[in-house]
Amino acid sequence: QKEVEQNSGPLSVPEGAIASLNCTYSDRGSQSFFWYRQYSGKSPELIMSIYSNGDKEDGRFTAQLNKASQYVSLLIRDSQPSDSATYLCAVGGGATNKLIFGTGTLLAVQP
Amino acid sequence: EAGVTQSPTHLIKTRGQQATLRCSPISGHTSVYWYQQALGLGLQFLLWYDEGEERNRGNFPPRFSGRQFPNYSSELNVNALELEDSALYLCASSFRTLLDTQYFGPGTRLTVL
Question: Is the pLDDT confidence value at B40 over 90?
Answer without folding.
Answer: no
